[in-house]
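Methods — Computational structure assignment.
A single polypeptide chain was analysed. Its primary sequence is given first, followed by the predicted tertiary structure written as structure tokens.
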Amino acid sequence: MFADRNFATGAALSMIVGFGSFSGMLWSPCSAEAARLRRVDVGLVLAPGGLGNIFSLFARIVTRVDQRMMLGFGCLLNAVSST
């Protein structure tokens, strides 16, 4: 499968984006502990990402809303929550 350059490039970029997305979630509790924040505060910061995953389970919203808009909104939320 990786002989196809398009597939290999897409898989590699997906892996890089996945590492970038999930590393922020993994470092949030560690940095919060160093800043002496409560665990509840860290949970509230990470909750919107969990809600996005729950909403993605519903297939009907994908057929009604433009997927480019959904992707852009998700990237925007990720950028805002990472700052």
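Note: The radius of gyration is 16 Å.
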